[in-house]
Specification:
By secondary structure, this protein is mainly alpha-helical. It is built from 11 helices and 4 strands; from the N terminus they run H-H-E-E-H-H-H-H-H-E-E-H-H-H-H. It has one domain: Arp2/3 complex 21 kDa subunit ARPC3 (Orthogonal Bundle), CATH 1.10.1760.20.
Length: 374
Amino acid sequence: MHVPDGFINAPTSAVTGVVAAGAVAVSLRGARRELGGTSRAGEAERGGERTAPLAGLVAAFIFAVQMLNFPVAAGTSGHLLGGALAAILVGPYTGVLCVSVVLLMQGILFADGGLTALGVNITDMAIVTTVVAYAVFRGLVKVLPRTRRSVTVSSFVAALVSVPAAALAFTFLYWIGGTTDVAIGKVATAMIGVHVLIGIGEAVITALTVGAVVAVRPDLVHGARGLGPRLKLRVNGELVDAPSGNTPSGTTPSGTGPAPAPVAARSHRKVWITGLVASLVLAGFVSFYASANPDGLEKVASDKGIDEKAEEHASADSPLADYGVEDITDARVSGGLAGVIGVGVTVVAGSAVFWAVRRRRSDDASPSSTETTR
């Protein structure tokens, strides 16, 4: 659903650019809490120390999976938007930043999504999908049983709803600032209809990914925190609720043997390496077999005449434009290498952003920054 230059007029694009910039600014502040450091009350925020290293990986994984267009119907394909996946794995604020990093890399390096339409794309694909998906997800996990399966089911529904919501948001922006004279009713019907189908693919990918991580490391899933059963301790032969925090050092909850490492101390290295390898394989190899059909927006734009005033991308002469490496004639090698480069650049750029955000949070919470004069 990458909107190219020329679909939306300049004033509307400018306004969405301001909206996107404001949302990113708010997300930077919110992500400081999600990525760790110390809370305003001075207490360490649980889980943040594990979110920061994985946020860049989530951005790279979304980039990789977005290369895997899957067929839906009538010569149309779809691909992951990623807002739901990012919000559930690393939090809504960090999720907005993850998808924004992906869109920025795609627009600058791969000529995918117009540069003047960057505000439109961030508003539509990063903000709308993340906000809608996380709201639906949180609503569901509050009413469903507090189990890992509930997290997976809620992820499926949240992702499914987020895609037609993004299609509706694009339709609204087109109604305000579309550059061609097309009946808005026809645009809405076509966009929402095809993106409901694409949403099913988004839901499957999101649920499978979240379910896989929850199965091995639920502590790494932002949306799964606090959903497990309360830890029990055996005191004088009776089971009682354990106080908040980790099990006492050196004992199991029942006090009968050595305890596993506290959750906060468990390494995320295996998960990070596995995720990075999976991203590289998907982008570097599996992407060659992705559907070549136009995605939902491209198909609707072509059928309804929305693309009549589409403009050439400012980065059309980029050596990585259209997800291929310039001067490499073998399509498989060219596309695979471009995908690997994209994953590498995205994980580095994303990790740098999230490291800086978490570093800023830690600096703000340091004793020297909170001293007051008496």
